[in-house]
Amino acid sequence: MKVVKHYDFPIAQQDEMLAKWGAYLEKSKKEPEKYPKYIVGPFIVAQTGDTMKGISILEVENDQQLVNYILDLSPPLNAKFELLYDAANYIPIYMDRKNKA
Predict the structure, then answer these.
(1) Angle subtended at Cα 41 by Cα 91 and Cα 13, rounded to the nearest 5 degrees
(2) What percent of the chain shows pLDDT beyond 90?
(3) Higher pLDDT, 88 or 20
(4) 61 three-state secondary structure
(5) What is the extent of the structural domain holding 19?
(6) N- to C-terminal Cα distance for the chain?
(7) Is residue 42 within 8 Å of 86, Cβ to Cβ?
(8) How many domains is the chain partitioned into structurally?
(9) Is 60 helix (H, G, I), strand (E, B) or coil?
């Protein structure tokens, strides 16, 4: 499944975040089956303030990948994951249900 990840972390903790990110990249290269695959990003939102915010799109094959991601990077990372689905699949399902109603 594809998920959009909205994330943020305090700028005051960016050294800790970068250290965790580096360790995460090493682990995910050694055992890619245990971690989500990045499709888009990660990108950082251009803004000022005391928080870094960003967005990316991930391919997640199972719950273990998502849990490993969360455990390896949180805290300081705060993340929200939103499921994406192919809109082309929606239309035939909708039409089938509409025709049965």
Answers:
(1) 130
(2) 83
(3) 20
(4) coil
(5) 2-100
(6) 29
(7) no
(8) 1
(9) coil
CA distance 14 to 37: 23
88 Cβ contact list (under 8 Å, min separation 6): none
Burial 52-79 (b: 16+ CB within 10 A, else e): bebebbbebeeeebbebbeebbeebbeb
| Whole-prediction pTM | 0.84
Question: What confidence category does residue 100 fall into, taking pLDDT thresholds of 50, 70 and 90?
Answer: confident
Distance CA 53, CA 59 (A): 20
65: CATH: 3.30.70
Convert the pLDDT of each residue in 43-58 to its tens digit.
999 889 999 999 999 9
Compute CA distances 78 → 9, 59, 72, 88, 94, whole Å. 6, 19, 12, 31, 35
